[in-house]
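Quick log. Single chain, no ligands specified.
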Amino acid sequence: TRCVARYLMKQSGLAQIFLTTDHGTLEAKDVGQGLTAVNMGPPGLSWQDIPLSKSVETLSLPIAGAPVATNMGNPHCTFFVTDAEAIDMDREASPIEHHPLFPDRTNVQFASIIGKNHLRMRVWERGVGVTFASGSSACATIVAASRRGITGKSAQIDLDGGTMHVEWC
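-> predicted structure:
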């Protein structure tokens, strides 16, 4: 969303645009220094909103590792691990993408704590595999971390493709 917004703002000369998605209308704005902020809207936190195939607690799914489920316009499954770098993404994330609990499949994140309000996260996008970055995955991870009390509602996330600052308002 940030990439599309940045492209459209550059083409139009506008510093703020609105993008309509299946999740709703999202505001994007230029925040200076080549950075783009997008308001992704409220996360889906109930099992129906993710969606999951049955009623379960989304803060601790009945999957080994007790991940958190979140919807940011697409389904996410976030694991908090000791060392995100040590995760074999092909072996660990691919089966979760196709887990029966996720009828529409899911994006999968593995995050580890670097410091106060600072996480390292790796992404597996459904239908794609490992990716360098994902804005919706970064947002889902901060929502999950905040819900678990790991971070506040604002944190830095280091991804393979760079660093993002995410704030859940």
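The first strand starts at residue 16 and ends at 21.
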